Amino acid sequence: MSMSFDQYMRDMVQPMRDELTSIGIRELRTPEEVEANLPEAKGTALVVINSVCGCAAGQARPGVAKSLQHDITPDHLFTVFAGQDKEATAKAREYFAPYPPSSPSIALMKDGELVHFIERHQVENRSAEEIAEDLISAFDRFCR
């Protein structure tokens, strides 16, 4: 039995995608989808740069999920998947300057402008609860 590498990777990462889409976060899988959504998103938009690493699984995705249980949340919820939807991720990262590419990472935008950013190094050494608290603080500040 032979399976292509691409099919294997799609099968392996689907649960990682589902972890975010099942809580209402919309995937942007092409540069065109990113371009049609991020600069036009009125109000606030959360953008999760998803990845296959352990800190995405243990801290970033659970932290995002916990933060979205807060009373105040962004108007729009998006995700791109680093290493899988490469062109979409590269296009999304254009909006996150001056921050260098990192994954996982989490951006909060307001009217198309970056207002809060959590880089990978801020995910790696913190718990999901700490990441949720960081995001909730940003939601309280920017999403009212």
UniProtKB/TrEMBL annotation:
Xref: Pfam families: Disulph_isomer
Highest taxon listed in the record's lineage: Bacteria
N-terminal signal peptide: none
Recorded family membership: Belongs to the bacilliredoxin family.
NCBIfam families for this protein: YphP_YqiW
Name this protein carries in UniProt: BrxA/BrxB family bacilliredoxin
